[in-house]
UniProtKB/TrEMBL annotation:
Organism ancestry: Eukaryota, Viridiplantae, Streptophyta, Embryophyta, Tracheophyta
Domain Reverse transcriptase: 3-138
Protein name, per record: Reverse transcriptase domain-containing protein
Pfam families, per the entry: RVT_1
InterPro entries hit by this protein: DNA/RNA_pol_sf, Rev_trsase/Diguanyl_cyclase, RNA-dir_DNA_polymerase, RT_dom
Residues spanning the signal sequence: none
Length: 159
């Protein structure tokens, strides 16, 4: 069992308050970007009509995959986490106090990703916005705001 902890969601969301501009990033098949240790790959064996196969990359659902991925993110992005970036598993936010520094902040994140051969899912990324959804919360410069999806039932209630 790997006891590496997940970050505190409330703290991550609170850290976005006061940021003028943000970019929301999503890792492309995050767990699959980590190769299995050769000796551990055989422990992931599964059988199909075509034969017996092993995962060569970390699969979602393995006992320690969440902790392993979180540790990797913490190590790879240690220089920027808590400063210009927050991350929770494969959801990341690049945040800048001033719009003028956002391109440089993104450039730094992309350089780290390129160095470690990490990829993003462009369909799930949003760049250079004043707010958006992060970990189910609507975040902006003002902090946490009501998520319209979550309050729609209340809005639609009859008096």
């Amino acid at each position: 069992m790997d006891p590496f902890p997940l970050p505190n969601i409330d703290q991550l969301v609170d850290e976005t308050a006061g940021c003028e501009i943000m970019s929301f990033l999503d890792a492309f098949r995050g767990y699959h970007q980590i190769f299995m240790h050769e000796e551990d790959a055989e422990k992931t064996a599964f059988m199909t009509p075509e034969g017996i196969f092993c995962y060569l990359v970390m699969a979602f659902g393995l006992k320690n995959s969440g902790a392993t991925y979180t540790r990797m993110v913490a190590r790879v992005f240690q220089a920027v986490l808590g400063c210009t970036m927050e991350a929770y598993v494969d959801d990341m936010i690049v945040k800048s106090k001033q719009s003028s520094s956002h391109a440089d902040d993104l450039r730094e994140i992309f350089a780290i990703m390129q160095k470690f051969n990490l990829r993003l899912n462009p369909k799930k990324c949003t760049f250079g916005v004043q707010g958006g959804k992060f970990l189910g919360y609507m975040v902006s410069r003002r902090g946490i705001e009501a998520n319209p999806e979550k309050i729609q039932a209340i809005i639609n209630m009859e008096p």
